[in-house]
Specification:
By secondary structure, the protein is mainly α. The chain has one domain. Helix content is 97%, strand content 0%. 0% of the residues are buried. The model has no long low-confidence stretch (mean pLDDT 90). Keywords: Signal. This is Lipoprotein.
Length: 73
């Protein structure tokens, strides 16, 4: 009888341990997702800034090239 009770207690402890581990995994997953979202937002903002700068530089070069062509005529 003692062996059965001890076995059931061991099974219960294992179950509780697994349940706690699952909760910790969920919390860790949520933290990882939040970190990735923050990093992604920062990366998107940086890419937008670079793209805006590239567009402005391209427009400036195009304008200068157009003026040079007109001046050469």
């Amino acid at each position: 009888m003692k062996k059965v009770v001890l076995s059931l207690a061991l099974v219960a402890m294992t179950f509780v341990s697994c349940k706690e581990a699952a909760q910790e995994t969920e919390a860790t997953t949520e933290q990882a997702v939040e970190a990735v979202e923050t990093t992604t937002e920062e990366a998107v903002e940086a890419v937008q800034e670079v793209a805006d700068s590239a567009v402005a530089a391209t427009e400036e070069v195009a304008t200068e090239a157009k003026e040079a062509v007109e001046a050469a005529k």
